[in-house]
Amino acid sequence: MLMLAKTTHFLQMIRFSHTLFALPFALLGAVMAWTAPVAAGPTPGFRWQDLAGILVCMVSARSAAMAFNRLADQVWDAANPRTRMRHLPTGVLSLWEVRGFMAASAALFVASTLWFLPNWLPLLLSVPVLLFVMGYSYAKRFTSLSHVWLGAALMLAPVAAWLAIRGLVVWQHPADAGPAFVLGLAVLCWVSGFDMIYACQDVAFDRQAKLHSIPARWGVPRALRMAAACHLLMIVPLAALPWCFPQLGLGWPYGLAIAAVAVLLVIEHSLVKAHDLDRVNTAFFHVNAVISLGLFIVGSWDLLT
To answer: Is the per-residue pLDDT at 62 higher than 80?
Structure first.
């Protein structure tokens, strides 16, 4: 029972359910990598080994980054009324427990890249990627563009999945990774936008603590407009994907999925007003989970049929 309770606390600390945001895009990138024709040579095709590796890499990298975030922000979390009941400020988890969890997750991430051998790219890039993802935790100390840093970190999900499957091809033909980068640009815009919305909850505290964010610098109304602009920009790379890379074979089902994403983004912004932030969590989790899962399901179905 103690082990189960401790595991539950760790999963709550890293908000394991929020894995739904990046993982579907990584898996969509993987499906594209499995099915897209190769300029010279056979299409890689599906391997259970690749799928298992991507899942373990995604979960372990995110777990390490979230644990590092809790360690980096422990002083601010304890002082912020919204976060003071988190696991470190309340002592539910100790510093050494969180440090151990972070180290184990980071080690698992690096070790799991060995599953993709003889493709050495994932192993070679594992530490730089992990450092970049963890670096987000310090970004708000010196730049209001910390939201873009988070977006760039999650942008790596489809790109890393593509490299894990087709790294040997990309090594010889870098342009082969084009579809993954275009999908990654959509993730960059999407995450940057919804993180701006989420940060609106902490405007007063961020200003008091001299932490940087778009809402703290420009105010909530402008931040919401900037978030809307990011989400409008998200549609551009999503729509460009089948036009720039017709070899993917994306058709009308994917087009309908893009239209549905646009509608959901409008709904997300209708839920949050500058004078009423009570539904931020609904907009942040529920709507975005539907966007990522829905695009993955429809996009994968379109690619595989």
So the answer is: yes
Of residues 263 and 39, more confidence is placed in 263
Tens digits of residue pLDDT in 182-195: 999 999 999 999 99
List the structure tokens of 109: 């991430």
3-state secondary structure of 211: coil
Residue 273's DSSP bridge partners are: 276
- Rounded distance between C-alpha atoms, residue 86 and residue 146, angstroms: 22
**Residue 102: predicted pLDDT:** 97
Residues paired with 122 in a beta bridge = none
> What is the residue type of 174?
P
The backbone torsions φ and ψ at residue 276, rounded to the nearest 5 degrees and listed phi first, read: -145, 100
CA 70/CA 72 separation, integer angstroms = 6
Q: Is the dihedral of CA 59, 61, 65, 70 positive or negative?
A: positive
Contact 31, 299 (CB under 8 A): yes
pTM: 0.94
The residue whose two tokens read 């180290």 is: 103
User: Is 291 in contact with 20 (CB distance < 8 Å)?
Assistant: no
DSSP string, 19-72: HHHHHHHHHHHHHHHHHSPPSSS------HHHHHHHHHHHHHHHHHHHHHHHHH
Tokens 């579809």 belong to which residue?
179
Q: Is 18 exposed, middle or buried (0-12, 13-18, 19+ CB in 10 A)?
A: middle
Judged against a pLDDT cut of 90, whether residue 97 lies above it is answered with yes
**Cis bond leading into 118, ω under 30°?**
yes
Ordered DSSP codes for 179-205: HHHHHHHHHHHHHHHHHHHHHGGGHHH
Domain 23-304 has CATH 3.40.50.740: no
